[in-house]
Amino acid sequence: MSHTHVLHRSLRQTPPVAVRGQGVWVYDSTGRAYLDGSGGAAVSCLGHNHPDIQAAMHAQIDALSYAHTSFFTTEVAERLADRLVADAPAGISHAYFVSGGSEAVEAALKMARQYFVEIGQPERRHIVARRQSYHGNTLGALAVGGNAWRRAQFAPLLIEVEHVSPCYAYRDQRDGESAEQYGERLAQELEQTFERLGPGTVMAFVAEPVVGATAGAVTAVPGYFRRMREVCDRHGVLLIADEVMCGMGRTGTLYAIEQEGVTPDLITIAKGLGGGYQPIGAVMAQRRIVEAMQQGSGFFQHGHTYLGHAVACAASLAVQDVIRRDGLLARVREQGAGLRERLERALGGHPQVGDIRGRGLFMGIELVQDRATRQTFDPALSLHARVKREAMARGLMVYPMGGTIDGRQGDHVLLAPPLHHHGRRTGPIDRTPGRRH
Ligand code: PMP
């Protein structure tokens, strides 16, 4: 069977054809099995073909698949929002459902903007984000992300976003500088950025609690987010936590920001929210933002055709049920500690492994040419892409990440395996070294 008409992202290659998934395994059309070590891109949090999620989806399809949000709400959307709000950080009162991560980021930015317009501060329009960040690929979300390699071809981007330094201790914490001092330095940079842009002109600071796609599970130093929150509060700026990748249990708490002891104004979630069964995302919003819009125009000026799709909500609700029923958050913390230990044992002394980091079942490995100097490889070598290729050849999926971050070549692989196992492998793993796809 030759396939020629799908435009693949990698324009010169056709990837293997996936035909079946079961538990932590994905099978291609030749019958080879691949261990899903990355949940795709941190999506398949309960693995593949989970019977409970499929049953919930079937039941919803039998009842109703689609009802447009300008006419109806659905029971599943309401129940899902209740569940997500009940376990959200203090003050978060509503979920606005969209169809994916980029849409969630764009909706959050528009909600922030509309909020300030409604409360009579229309001059607040600047967005500040971090250079080491990925927030999506639609034009607005791309502008927020700081990955120069992704942005370059599309510059100038339609919205202008100011980028500040990430919290990236492995590379940027200075010799002799404590975590506190490092966090303080970054807080001062944020404060100076707000002041330079002009008092009362910044609407939001956007950050991933654990950086995913641009940097391989980079956690912030303790206290960093509390300091950033304080600076935002002093300047009346909203804090948007982008948890599209790190949220929904992956780091051992439902929302990753819970572990930082701060409450964001808006949280974006997607990926693990639907577990890969249906595209879905959401903006989780603070009550005062929603109330300002309710009391103002009474209408959120944003929408898409598939908002709150009933089958997507049914799948997500089932994912939430399983996470709670099977005690998966505690399991992630325990399994994550084991995974870290095993990675350190296996790779800690490898000459090309600079750093092993992450939280829960969200782990990153930074690849370097020289461990002592932390020098990265020549970009042309893209070690991450080679690691991914060789892993696939051995029947393992790991998520590769490169591109220029903060003027430096990034070379990372990310592990984001399902939060628990179900199902057994039913086909062969072809471990022939060097077998490529
Ligand atoms: N934000 C973050 C933090 C992400 O990791 C991603 C996807 N990798 C997005 C937004 C965009 O999500 P999507 O690909 O579903 O549009």
TrEMBL record:
Which cofactors does this gene product need?
pyridoxal 5'-phosphate
> Which UniProt key words apply to this protein?
Aminotransferase, Pyridoxal phosphate, Transferase
Known EC number(s)?
2.6.1.-
Residues of the region (Disordered) are 417-437
* Recorded coiled-coil stretches: none
Query: Is-annotated flag, keyword Transferase?
Result: yes
**Key word Isomerase present:** no
Q: Give the UniProt entry's GO cellular component terms.
A: cytosol
MF term (GO), any: pyridoxal phosphate binding
Organism superkingdom: Bacteria
Q: Which family does it belong to?
A: Belongs to the class-III pyridoxal-phosphate-dependent aminotransferase family.
Descriptive protein name: Putative aminotransferase
Q: Which organism is it from?
A: Achromobacter agilis
Shown stretch of the complete protein: 1 to 437 of 609
